[in-house]
Write a structure and sequence with these properties.
The complex is a heterodimer of chains A (about 260) and B (about 250). The relative contact order of chain A is 0.12. Chain A has about 260 residues and is mainly α. Chain A is flat. Chain A folds into two domains: about 35 residues; about 210 residues, MetI-like fold (Orthogonal Bundle). Chain A is built from ten helices and no strands. The longest helix of chain A has about 40 residues. With about 250 residues, chain B is an alpha/beta fold. Helix content of chain B is about 35%, strand content about 25%. Chain B contains seven helices and ten strands. In chain B, strands 6-7-8-3-9-10 form a six-stranded mixed sheet, sandwiched between helices. A four-stranded antiparallel sheet of chain B has the order 2-1-4-5, covered by helices on one side. In chain B, helix 4 runs parallel beside helix 5 and helix 6 crosses helix 7. Chain B is globular. The chains are: A mainly alpha (about 260), B alpha/beta (about 250). At the A-B interface, helix 7 and helix 8 of A face helix 2 of B.
Chain lengths: ~260, ~250
Amino acid sequence: MSESMSKRLAAIAKPLACFAVLVLIWQYGAPLAGIPSYVLPLPTEIAQRFIETFSVQMQGLAMTAFTTLAGLGLALVVGVLLALLIIYVPLLGSMITPLLAAFNSIPKIAIAPLFVIWFGLGYESKVLLAFLLALFPIFVNSVTGLGEIEADLIDLSTLAGGNRWRIFVKVRLMNAVPYIADAVKVAFPLALVGSIVGEFIGGNSGIGHIILSGQFNLDTPLVFATLLSITLFTTLGIGAVSLFENAFLTWRPSQRRR
Amino acid sequence: MSVDIRNVSKSFRSTLAVDDASLALEEGSFVSIVGPSGCGKSTLLRLVAGLIRPSSGTIDVRGVPVKGPLRNIGMVFQSPVLLPWRRTLDNILFVAEMGGLKTSQWRERALELMQLAGLGGFEASYPHELSGGMQQRASICRAMLLKPPLILMDEPFGALDVITRERMGYALQTLWDESRSTVLFVTHSITEAVLLSDTVVVMTPRPGRIRDIVPIDLPRPRHPGTLREPRFLELSERVREGIEAQWME
């Protein structure tokens, strides 16, 4: 027990120590190299700016977090439903899948201005952009997770009296959970990209807007401080998925401890 | 008769996988189908389960014609097909859930079966924490949980090493003795077939045909000593002759 605790501490301490060294080099190296503050502000300046603008940062973050999570949630629902459709109605699958793949090849960022035209500068266009970016990885992994079941297992379940619904809930859905958890790890940062790009393009709220205002005023410390806020958010998000994995997916090969 | 197979043929495109097979299984008997790969053993098993339909002929299970997948039979495959996210006990109770039954009423029996199969103490282990032989024993427990009238086994020990395989045979005998379900057991091991069965059905390939049906009159329970009895060797020899006969043609 204590051994695993110390192992965990070491796992946290090592990257932290590395980070601390990098920050020290930055803090004392940048002035020596003559890099001006508007190009690369010192860590202390960034921290100071972060504290000064904390309430604004958190307000912006709340908005961005909302559009990101709403887009991600929507992508989860639609992605899984689309996957189900494709698995249970193969004809529809053969019609939809190539279209989706073709659509996915369009850089979603390029569609962003269109969304502003259609849905305005409010949160809707940002949610939609986040949704679009998150949709594909969730859809693809759901198809794999729900579909790649050993035929023997389906036969065995059927012969034991299982109907479609029971097999869906207890076999397919359960099989898909780790695949979807993996997809969320990829889709979450993508949804965040969607939200921030949406904020860059229009509107006056969110993290993206704060970064833009930092750029206009050549307030580089503010830009960095905002990046710090985003990092906090993504760390929390990925941490939540990892917590879920540790709690419910201990049986996964990648989670097995030796 | 528990299972009555009458003049069943099955072809896949132009290949005749099973050619005019007739076979009757008595209620509570242990019947093995033995033969080389590609002789239609597994196809016959899937036909009985109702997973595929015969091209011609009929199959009755307990007097009822098989028209689609049977809904209350046990199945064991070559691989254990356990659910990796379920602990062993919950894996065994899985079939109760599939049957729409209350798992609480089958828990006791699941625990007893695990004890009999030498899996006591591993109730809370995940499949990946068990050895291959243990996983397969768990899958046999699962097949027997609901005391199904019929259990189909498709080369259940095919993936195990020879030593584990023989021990598994005795474990299976113990479990079967408790449930007395009718068992249709597919294998390509003559020894295994003769050791475990009441009847051995010999099949030969291209096309898949029943070549011989050998009643096994060895006393039960069978044990390692059985393998050395003259009667066992005699019966094994007869099964072997059925398989070799085709090579000479």
